[in-house]
Design a protein that fits this description.
Structural class: alpha/beta
Radius of gyration: 19 Å
Distance between the termini: 23 Å
Strand order of the largest sheet: 1-2-3-4-5-6-7-9
Order of helices and strands: EHEHHEHEHEHEHHEHEHEEHH
Shape: globular
Mean pLDDT: 96
Strand content: 5-15%
Low-confidence stretches: none
Largest sheet: 8 strands, parallel, barrel
Helix content: 40-55%
Length: 340
């Protein structure tokens, strides 16, 4: 099973993509998720000026240089991410036109960097359609655009999404899309944090008058059993791993007034450490369910740890090795677990 690390998950803003790649390779990873902001930062440095996010000619030129850099380090860019807020905009709207224009630009970047997979996160935008048929129609159109180049689409549930926060939601949509080049990106945080965890409660888990802690665990195990029994391994295009800190004091249960992010979105952006590095979510159980499908694809670290500098300082090699160790430990423990 190949291990990878997302470029957005290592280092501080001061660190270059080159420095990140060196540390990732030194730790023994085989691939990276290339994050668009890292490509843009590389382009800014490469050309000595600020490159706009829609300057696709320049970004593609930078992307070709990134491809060469990654190949020199014997790594593979296996996915470009995160393509967000794409699906569900009203027909004929400027938002929808902009989303498809962005898709065409990102497909060009995929060609330049040499990857064949695009990660699409389930949208968290207000004002979009929540009807699965409507969402699937947009993703089907994107899938057909990607197919012209031999590319594929990995759809991920973001647990603060307005229409598809659970793995079962995105799986339902993927089935409606009904294209061979469309599958899932599953993520320990997005599912354990969405179906079991809650950053707005003292306990760190979902608390409602209608469900006890035991009932919550039963529901979570039932969801994992359904995943293991119903999702074909070849429809899981890659698997992301991270954990989450229990937030103290808990986050406010309303969207952040500055960023507009819902609580789980804020949790995702700043409180996601490596597995076995301070988190508390039941991620081993989720990893076990994914492995029980027969999945043997990319096992990729994607974390957003606001304590990175406190824990690792400037030592990217130390962090990358810790990430590799966490991959191996999670994989080993998940494999050793008895079937739920």
């Amino acid at each position: 099973m190949p291990f990878a690390l997302a470029s957005c998950s290592i280092g501080l803003p001061k660190h270059t993509l080159h420095q990140k790649i060196e540390a990732i390779r030194h730790a023994g990873f085989e691939g990276i998720e290339l994050s668009f902001p890292d490509l843009q930062s590389y382009a800014n440095l490469h050309f000595g000026r600020d490159i706009a996010e829609d300057d696709y000619d320049t970004l593609c030129e930078a992307g070709q240089a990134v491809r060469q850099l990654v190949e020199r380090h014997n790594l593979k860019i296996f996915v470009l991410q995160p393509f967000s807020n794409f699906e569900g905009w009203p027909e004929g709207s400027q938002k929808r036109e902009d989303a498809f224009a962005r898709a065409r630009g990102w497909i060009r970047i995929m060609e330049a960097v040499g990857t064949d997979m695009l990660q699409v996160g389930s949208s968290d935008s207000e004002g979009i359609a929540t009807d699965p048929e409507r969402v699937a129609a947009d993703l089907r159109e994107l899938a057909d655009m990607l197919a012209e180049k031999g590319f594929k689409l990995a759809y991920e549930n973001w647990c603060w999404s307005t229409h598809a926060p659970k793995w079962s939601d995105v799986w339902n949509i993927v089935q409606k899309v009904d294209r061979p080049n469309v599958g899932l990106c599953l993520d320990t945080f997005q599912s354990a944090g969405g179906e079991w965890g809650d950053p707005t409660t003292e306990s760190g888990r979902i608390e409602t008058p209608a469900i006890t802690e035991m009932e919550l665990s039963v529901r979570y195990r039932a969801s994992l059993k359904e995943l293991a029994e119903t999702v074909p391994a070849d429809k899981i295009f890659f698997f992301q791993i991270s954990d989450a800190y229990k937030v103290q004091p808990p986050l406010d249960d309303k969207p952040d007034p500055e960023s507009g992010l819902r609580p789980r979105g804020r949790w995702s952006h700043d409180y996601r450490p490596l597995p076995y590095d301070g988190g508390y979510l039941p991620i081993e159980q989720f990893a076990k369910a994914v492995l029980d499908t027969g999945f043997k694809g990319w096992f990729s670290v994607e974390v957003f740890d606001g304590k990175f500098e406190e824990k690792f300082g400037q030592d990217l090699n130390k962090y990358a090795q810790k990430a590799m160790d966490s991959c191996k430990e999670l994989l080993s423990k998940a494999k050793a677990m008895e079937t739920q």
